[in-house]
Amino acid sequence: MKRFTFAVSAVALMLAAGFAFAQGGQMQGQKIGLATSLQRGYATFKTNFTAAAAKMPDADYNFKPGSTPEARTFGAAIAHIAQSQFGQCSSLKGVPNPMQGKNLENELKTKAEITKALADSFALCDDLFAGVTDANATEMVKQGMNEVTRAAALYGVLVHGNEMAGTAYVYLRSKNIVPPSTENMGRGMRGRG
User: Fold this and answer.
1) How many CA atoms lie within 13 A of 177 on its CB side?
2) Is-contact 193 44, C-beta < 8 A?
């Protein structure tokens, strides 16, 4: 029986090696354009940041590490991203900001209020990322008083979001909570959302 298992394993290995050789002797990678890069980055950020907001207990939404008065609480950090995404994505869509004139960091108090605002801000941004193509990624779009490529504007959403995710993860770790990005990495979900 052991010889049979060994023989089957050896044949499978030779077939895999033969297939790789037939493909030019190298494993073939993917070609990932701007649109796919943006969409994957957004999916990963949205998944991890939403999960981070969910993982922190309601009682710890007022937590902030250290005693620096200017530091945001965990809840304020999450609300900050919601506020930012409402502004960025409504501007890119050319629609009124539904949170114009509000200060979500100060106005929202509970986990339920904050996570709802976060979900609503992602809903506003979702179709911007879903609708980007390699062709339209380099088109100029209005951003404030400037014009930038659509890709640059969308990467701005991701860069700011990931910056704040890093901050939120420090808060989670301070409470002995493993950040979702670390959990997902262990499940083989790196870069896939």
Assistant:
1) 17
2) yes
- pTM exceeds 0.85, yes or no: no
Q: Which two tokens stand for residue 146?
A: 């400037």
Neighbouring residues of 77: CB distance < 8 A, sequence distance ≥ 6: 164, 167, 168, 171
For 131-180, how does the pLDDT look when each residue is reduced to its tens digit (9 = 90+)? 999 999 999 998 888 999 999 999 999 999 999 999 999 999 999 999 99
Residues 6+ apart with CB under 8 A from 79: 104, 105, 108, 114, 117, 118
Q: Which two tokens stand for residue 177?
A: 């909570």
State the residue for tokens 């297939």: 19
Domain 32-186 in CATH 1.20.120.450? The answer is yes
By the 8 A CB rule, do 90 and 126 touch?
A: no
How many other CB atoms sit within 10 Å of the CB of residue 126? 14
Task: Determine phi and psi for 94, rounding to 5 degrees.
Answer: 75, 30
User: For residue 146, what are the β-bridge partners?
Assistant: 143
